[in-house]
Amino acid sequence: MPSPSFHSKMSSVDFDEPMDPEMELLDDEDMERDAEDFKEQGNAFYIKKDYSEAFNYYTKAIDMCPKTASYYGNRAATLMMLSRYREALEDSQMAVRLDDAFVKGHVREGKCHLSLGNAMAASRCFQRVLELEPDNVSAQQEIKNAESILEYERMAEIGFDKRDFRMVLYCMDRALESAPACHRFKVLKAECLAMLGRYPEAQSVASDILRMDSTNGDALYVRGLCLYYEDCIDKAVQFFIQALRMAPDHEKARLACRNAKALKAKKEEGNKAFKEGSYAEAFDLYSEALTIDPNNIKTNAKLYCNRATVGSKLSKLEQAIEDCTKAIKLDESYIKAYLRRAQCYMDSELYEEAVRDYEKVYQTEKTKDHKHLLKNAQLELKKSKRKDYYKVLGVDKNATEDEIKKAYRKRALMHHPDRHSSASAEVQKEEEKKFKEVGEAFTVLSDPKKKSRYDSGHDLEDDGGMGDVDANNIFKAFFGGPGGFSFEASGPGNFFFQFG
Questions:
Q1: pTM, to two decimals
Q2: 136 phi-psi bin (left φ>0, alpha ψ -120 to 50, beta other)
Q3: Per-residue pLDDT tens over the stretch 390-417
Q4: Which residue in 74, 302, 328, 471 is a FRET match for 262, CA 20 to 30 A apart?
Q5: How far apart are CA 238 and CA 219, in angstroms?
Q6: Spatial distance between the Cα atoms of 388 and 351, rounded to a whole number of angstroms
């Protein structure tokens, strides 16, 4: 015979009596009462600005009575305060589906659309509000806000096509005042910041989006774009590839990825040719690389500087200076370009320009090396403002003693006043001046001590050592002979030197 426990189980499980209809009604009333209690508690937390707790109690109310529009409306309001606009939009849409005459539901749906940047959808919601309440001031104002967003979008599109990125940035900042959760506007803002070279700001905006949506292909593209423009090409390619995984049709990411790979490859080819001493080839490769992407400012600045280095090796100093100037125009903080241009100026004997560049470098980076380069340029500038005795004699700065003597002999005979006695007074005066300079040059460069002081930048005229130079005495001493000397004609335009 079965035990009592078995029978009790059978009666409770298999033989439940039908529920009394009045009891079921009472349960519904209890649930509605409990739901209202949860709603009131949610309202209390909402007033205290404890939105997380308010959300929890409104959710409990919805669980008890899932077909009450106001509960969804309240939870939508709470989610909006928590900046969870997409979830708030779902709740407000549910609220108006349950009750199409629920004005607050339509208002909240419109505000969610507006915050997310869906201006046209927002306008439709606020138009519905005005159908229900024609004098609703809030809805009237929100329609104006939606129209403003649409106008800013239109202006931004025109600005982007014209590459007026500052205009686009202005439009997006204004639009985001009414649409703070619009990822589309934020991405466009970040892209324009990147195009304007404001990479940290662009990275920050893109990173904020990715924290909320790690799969956002546009934000991944902007992160890659910033790295690409900062010449971190390998990392940039990784982000472009990731963006294409999330959005396979992302044309901007595909183009940027292709450009990044091509730019890296061409630059490396140029570097390889340079290291191998194939300067002409390197020059051509760097030139090709510069055509790949005109928007990549930092990489192109480096390419111009690299090409300038090659140009200086090929003795194309003017071209090298021009390339350095282009690099500096792209990146005003590019110290290497200033140094390269300064050296080219030195090699071209443009010392004032070299001093200016070295001063800029030293102001930026006060190192011993930069100080030495500046001082050397300043010395060469000072020397360039004196008479260049090497040029007067027509010899190199490393000329030997014999070369200096031979040069003096040639120049002294060429400019001796007696040789030009039949010339005009103006010519005689000019030749006499040159004859004196030749004598000065020989006096300095033939004396080891004077030559040393001259080469080190000392102004010998300031020392009082050049004021009493007599070119004729130097001439006599050099050529020797007990008597006088004269130039006599040996034919038309020809003269020979004769001692008396």
A1: 0.67
A2: beta
A3: 888 888 888 898 888 888 888 888 888 8
A4: 328
A5: 13
A6: 14
